[in-house]
Structures are given as structure tokens and as C-alpha cells.
Amino acid sequence: MPNIxxxxxxxxxxxxxxxKLDGKSLDGATVASEANSDVQKRLPRALAxxxxxxxxxxxxxxxxxxxxxxxxxxxxxxxxxxxxGRSHLLPARRVxxxxx
Length: 100
Known about the structure:
By secondary structure, this protein is α+β, with helices and mostly antiparallel strands. Helix content is about 35%, strand content about 10%. It contains 4 helices and 4 strands. A two-stranded antiparallel sheet has the order 1-4. The chain has a two-stranded antiparallel sheet with strand order 2-3. The longest helix is centred in the first third of the chain and has 13 residues.
């Protein structure tokens, strides 16, 4: 069952879902900057940095991984599909005594 922090994260992402990137780079610094631009004003700068810009002081201080927007390219109708995802480093294979 989700807790209050989960709902807070969902609320931030729902606001971030309306960031217009129109051909801009999908790197974290650009997404954070656009989220806080004078035109869009989707998220406060500190919150946008904490969510998207891994090099920002806010993201480093939070200790959480940042959200990324991988670009999966156009589908058969020419639309681009972007999905939110957390950047995690995962081992390619977990080594145990059974599978060496």
C-alpha cells in the first residue's frame, strides 16, 4: 500500500508530466530548467533539480536517484514515446553459489 511519500512522488511526477520539451534535450539539467522556466513554472527550481538533475546540489543532498526520460523513438504512427524511469545501476547478473 502506498504511503504519504509515494503520493508526494506521484504528485510531483503528475506536475512534471506537463513539462513541454518540444525537441529539447532529455537530459536532467534541461528537464529541470524547463520545469522551472518563467513560461512553464511547473516545479520550483530546487524540487526540479532534486528530481531530474543528478549533478545538482539538491539531488546529491537528497540521496535519491533522479528520474530520467528515456526516448524510445517514434512508433509506427510517428509519435515518440517517453516514459519516466528511475536511474539505477543494477548488476547484469547476480552471482550466487548456485550459478557461479
